[in-house]
Design a protein that fits this description.
It is built from six helices and nine strands, in the order βββαβαββαβαβαβα. Helices cover about 25% and strands about 25% of the residues. It has one domain: Alpha-Beta Barrel (TIM Barrel), CATH 3.20.20.70. The chain has helices at about 65-75, 95-100, 135-140, 150-160, 180-190, 200-205; strands spanning about 15-25, 35-40, 60-65, 80-85, 105-110, 120-125, 145-150, 170-175, 195-200. The chain is globular and about 50 Å long. A nine-stranded mixed beta sheet has the order 3-1-2-4-5-6-7-8-9. It is of the alpha/beta class.
């Protein structure tokens, strides 16, 4: 069995959970086709996470980054979304280099809890209370997407609104299992604070991966 310490720090192999061609279901790029690369490993530990299966990197096969890149290039997609887990646990410089050489745009979805690596056309920052992001990635974020589970999360969202750049797009997204209870509060909040927009997980409504 692969051990966490066996995963190469040079980024030439990555614990690959899954890869697939689908539709972006959240945030600014909702509704767009993209190739998704889900990388294993996460120690943030959100209680409502819908991808817990990705948390333990050692249960997922180590795949050479060049193979991951080639699969993305063969897909016919225009962009690749790197997600997790928490993908920034690993060195993503080789992955991004290969994707960009092949002409794909590179998007990442991250909590920002680790130092940023890779070259990104779009950074979606989704900060988590358990392991808050650093200042550097806040300033580089193109999109701030805050998951709202209860009313306390609005204060958390405003904290990071002050840390991102002026051009960063702002989204509040209802936590899926709390949707019915929390969506009225989100709607009312956005009415009073129109710089924010609501992000919905449209892929779940459409029953697509």
């Amino acid at each position: 069995m692969v051990k966490a310490q066996d995963i190469r720090s040079d980024g030439l192999e990555l614990p690959l959970v899954e890869e697939f061609f689908s539709i972006q279901g959240e945030g600014y790029h909702s509704g767009e086709a993209a190739w998704f690369i889900r990388i294993g490993g996460c120690d943030v530990g959100c209680n409502w996470c819908d991808s817990r299966f990705s948390w333990d990197p050692v249960v997922h096969p180590l795949v050479t980054t060049s193979d991951i890149v080639q699969h993305a290039l063969n897909s016919g997609a225009r962009s690749a979304v790197v997600t997790g887990g928490e993908p920034l646990m690993w060195n993503l410089d080789p992955l991004c280099e290969g994707l960009k050489k092949g002409g794909l745009k590179t998007f990442i979805e991250t909590s920002g809890s680790y130092r940023i690596s890779g070259r990104w056309d779009w950074i979606c920052l989704s900060p988590k209370v358990n392991m808050p992001p650093g200042k550097d990635i806040c300033l580089r974020a193109d999109e701030l997407k805050v998951i709202i589970e209860n009313s306390d999360d609005f204060e958390w969202a405003e904290k990071y609104r002050l840390l991102v750049g002026e051009e960063c797009r702002l989204y509040l997204q209802p936590e899926w299992s709390s949707f019915s209870a929390i969506i009225p509060a989100i709607v009312e909040y956005v009415r009073k604070n129109p710089d924010w927009k609501i992000s919905l997980q449209i892929h779940k409504y459409m029953h697509i991966p």
